[in-house]
Amino acid sequence: MTQTSACRMPDILETSEGKERRIGVEIELSGLGYDELVSLSAKLLKGIPVLKSRYVTTLKTGLGEFIVELDSDPIKDLDLTDERLPQSMRELGGQAMDVIDAAAERVVPLEIISPPLPFSSLEAIESLVDNLRGAGALGSRDAIYFAFGLQLNPELPDLEPATLVRYLQAFAALYDWLKNRHQLDVSRKFTTYIEPWHGRYIEHLMEDGYQPDLGQLMEDYLELNPTRNRALDLLPLFAHLDRDRLERHVQDPRIKSRPTLHYRLPDCDIDNPDWHFYTVWNDWVVLEKLANDPDDLADMRRLFRERRKLNLHNLTHSWQETTHDWLAKKGYV
Q: What is the pTM for the complete model shown?
């Protein structure tokens, strides 16, 4: 499969304003030193590196401004002249930082954060990931304490409540299937970063006739999911739509406003030669297609509501298996 054809495209490629939809991508990895990752990424993306602060570099590229950073604010911001640090550490100066750097680059993920990219440019991420693997990048499976993710921030076609509900319903129905497809590393499975939505919220969301306005949609979600730690995190979207309402439930300066979903479920298995960016993206496209087919979505919701009935099928098939069989029958996979 070629790079240009590996990433499938959803049915809706433009926003309601007629602009190509965009997506932000966040890649966590290890195995390369920070300077090595900056240099290699700049070469692969044909970018110009600009050091912004300790462990934060921007890459000015033809696709926009990428960021390469160490994903740990305390280490990025560490100042050895700070009088709160032990005297012995301050006296060691650069030697202390060498030790801290070596440890940090081993146990703290390095991260590449893309700018909002047109869907048609995703082959650049596919190429970047494959080349980083070839250079020795490591993912979650390399050590038990790694829990590295590949996060997607896809722009929605529009921000109408009915559209949001369809995407949320599609995700709720496909969660078990997606989790199985991504074959999450054990270190990710035991983190709180990728929890599913609260069960009572999902049952309410999947009811026939659920047609909330924006305020009710947010209240329903935030009542039971007032946290960033969800496999599909809605808080950045809610910050964009109604920050005042969001902050009545959650106050967290890390929440950035953006008109996108924040898909946190996949792990980054970059050193696995059978794993590719497109394997994650193409599964997301399945969700896109389901969300935008009203008849299929209604049928999937019906199956979802029936999954707990006492019958032979439910006794012999998991919901993940039922989902896969339905998707295969309908031609989604």
A: 0.87
